[in-house]
Amino acid sequence: MLILLRTVLVLDWVIALSWTMRALDWRRMLPLVPDLTRREYPYPIPLPSLTVIVPARNEAANIAATLRSLLASDRVVLQIIAIDDRSTDQTGAIMEVVAQSEGGAGGKTLQVLHVAELPSGWLGKTHAMALGAQQATGEWLLFTDGDVLFHRDALRRALAYATDSRADHMVLLPTILMQSWGERMMIAFLEVLSIWAVRPWRVPDPGARRDSLGVGAFNMIRREVYDAMGGWDALRVEVLEDLSLGRRVKQSGYAQRVALGVDMVKVRWREELLAWSTT
């Protein structure tokens, strides 16, 4: 019994030391990740063309704000493709209203697609994004969600950084909006676990093959790279499609970048998001 207690005590100290070292590593290295709110990156004039693809299912409460925040983007020529994926609420109708009343101004267009039936062999979200990509004309594709809010300068800064850093794929980490103690507790728990999942400062290193990143709120990729990897057709039934895209980019040897930017991209975390990915 004494030997067992001593063994458990040693293991406790090893675990505690491991967590402490990992946390200190994050504190020391995270400032190396570029912050788009603190630095202006040089950008070509004009910027590369961008298509933002917004799949949404039953997002009537959020989709108008998302589309309007994109339409308000500053100093960027933008094609927005919104896909109503079999919604049973007013998501599709709201998309059409926003497109008719606010699309087409300031060099920005808003096109709405409607999915009535899910083809065999696909999950809903990957199919919707693939459908949007088929209609895209931009040099860059940005895949996002129907409940994300964009700062008016977010897309310009992201394109400038991606161009300056010669990226093929770029993730801008979102600011998570929390409105309840339950959400705060869950996010805090996930953030603690995330320190073992990926090291953001290692993502740009081609030698750090296990450190890749994809975020559903902001997955931006060069069109030619998207096509070369087979697009979403190669990830038809991936539940965590955002992470899978990031992993595929890294494993294929393309240049991946990650950036911070408080309030550049905002999203409210909800458990229902996972439910859509599996239908």
Q: Describe it for me?
A:
Helix 2 (63-71) packs parallel to helix 3. The protein has helices spanning 2-29, 63-71, 91-102, 124-135, 154-164, 181-197, 223-228, 241-251, 272-277; strands spanning 50-56, 78-85, 108-115, 140-143, 148-150, 169-172, 175-177, 219-222, 256-259, 265-268. It is of the alpha/beta class and 279 residues long. The termini are far apart. The chain contains 9 helices and 10 strands.
Short description:
This protein has nine helices and ten strands. By secondary structure, the chain is an alpha/beta fold.
Strand order of the largest sheet: 3-2-1-4-8-6-9
Distance linking N and C termini:
51 Å
Largest sheet: 7 strands, mixed
The value of Rg in angstroms is 20 Å
Mean pLDDT: 84
| Helical content class | 40-55%
Strand portion: 15-25%
Succession of helices and strands: HEHEHEHEEHEEHEHHEEH
Shape call: globular
- Chain oligomer state: single chain
> Structural class per helix/strand content?
alpha/beta
The tally of beta strands, per DSSP, is 10
Question: How many DSSP H or I helices?
Answer: 9
Poorly predicted regions: 271-279
Highlighted features:
279 residues, alpha/beta, 7-stranded mixed beta sheet, 3-stranded mixed beta sheet, 9 helices, 18% strand
